[in-house]
């Protein structure tokens, strides 16, 4: 015996509705997944941008620090040069003063020698009464 089964139209409609609902649910799930993926991509992009900005800021800071260090080194070098120049000038002044003192001493010695030579006979005359003949 052959049995034939016939579906009532209501059942077909119900099945179609269920299928449609399932399809809609699948679509919604796919859309949600896509949205989540997009959000994740956006977050990743934002994070990457933030990291790039941080790196750029760090590079700028490093460059500024290097520039400051170079400036400080230049200033130190200039100060050292100035100090050396001052020391050289002081040494030159001291040498000049020493030379002047030596010249003055030499002049004084020459003057005293000249006085001795010029006044030698007078000294001998003034000293001779103190030393009797025979003790000269």
Write a structural description.
The protein has one helix and no strands. With 136 residues, the protein is an all-alpha fold. The protein has one domain. It is rod-shaped and about 175 Å long. Residues 12-113 have a biased composition (Acidic residues). Residues 1-118 are annotated as: Disordered.
Low-confidence stretches: none
Distance, first to last CA: 183 Å
- The string of secondary-structure elements, in order, is H
The number of distinct structural domains comes to 1
Helical content (DSSP H or I, runs of 4+): over 70%
Structural class: mainly alpha
Discrete helix count: 1
Major sheet characteristics? none
C-alpha Rg, in Å?
Answer: 57 Å
Biased composition (Acidic residues): 12-113
Region (Disordered): 1-118
Please specify the SSE layout and strand pairing:
Blueprint (H helix, E strand, L loop, with lengths): L8 H119 L9
Can you tag this structure with a few keywords?
136 residues, mainly alpha, 1 helix, rod-shaped
Concise structural overview:
By secondary structure, the protein is mainly α.
């Amino acid at each position: 015996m052959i049995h034939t089964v016939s579906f009532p139209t209501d059942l077909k409609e119900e099945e179609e509705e269920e299928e449609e609902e399932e399809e809609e649910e699948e679509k919604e799930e796919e859309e949600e997944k896509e949205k989540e993926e997009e959000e994740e991509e956006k977050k990743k992009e934002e994070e990457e941008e933030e990291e790039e900005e941080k790196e750029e800021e760090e590079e700028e800071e490093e460059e500024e620090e290097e520039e400051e260090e170079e400036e400080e080194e230049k200033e130190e070098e200039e100060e050292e040069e100035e100090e050396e120049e001052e020391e050289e000038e002081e040494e030159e002044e001291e040498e000049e003063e020493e030379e002047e003192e030596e010249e003055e001493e030499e002049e004084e010695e020459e003057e005293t020698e000249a006085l001795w030579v010029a006044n030698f006979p007078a000294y001998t005359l003034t000293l001779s009464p103190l030393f009797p003949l025979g003790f000269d």
